[in-house]
Amino acid sequence: MQNGMLYIEKIKREIKENKEAAVSIAPSYPAAFGQNKAGRLVSALKKLGFSRVEETVYILPKIIKLRSELVKHSEIPILGNSCPRIVKMIHEEFPHLVSCLPSFHSPMVAHCSSLKQRFGKDIITVFIGPCIEKRAEAEEAESVDYVLTFKEFYKWLQMEKIDLENLESRPFDAEPPEWARFSVFLMEIHGIKESKAFLEGFPQNSRKGKFIELLGCKGGCLNGPGMLGRGVNIKR
Ligand code: SF4
User: Fold this and answer.
1) Separation of 18 CA from ligand 1 center, angstroms?
2) To the nearest 5 percent, what fractions of the chain are helix, strand and coil?
3) Pocket lining: 221 vs ligand 1, CB cutoff 6 Å
């Protein structure tokens, strides 16, 4: 059984045992399911038994504030830690740049921590997004219990015969400010080769007071390995 299916079985068991479960859904969900499917996705997740459904960007205003403080007081430019592929590469190939990474958590880990802080440490947290690498990151973080890709989540919906077309829209359980949704797409460099070339010249190729987010996948998270859309026929 593939990891994702195994996780789905575990999550289903936990929900069946009446444990509370919450979802943190990555900002790229409109690219996976269609621009106008947000409310139906919430309904689908509630149907699967999740008591709370939030967007990961809910935590962005807090993280952006921390980033601004950091760059303001740093003598060197700061590298983002949203992409686990990049963080791993920095640790393995550019250890002298580890100090340029923020000491606070990535958005996924920070949002799941926030869910546990607000709704109790026993709430099960499930991050759903386009990234398979986040599974390794989650193993190191106490706050993220499971990671599913959009492809795996879509498979789950199919297994339960849940059709998004037949669901009513429901609002997310928390609304982040609209600007937070757009701020995540302000990446500067994407692709492993491109990021590596950039890191080879860092920090001389950047200036103090700058925050630089590198994304390992070419095209960023919208092209992540767990993204839905290629080969999946979903009515938008
Ligand atoms: S760029 Fe790719 S590896 Fe990095 S967080 Fe996004 S999906 Fe994951």
Assistant:
1) 32
2) 50, 10, 40
3) yes
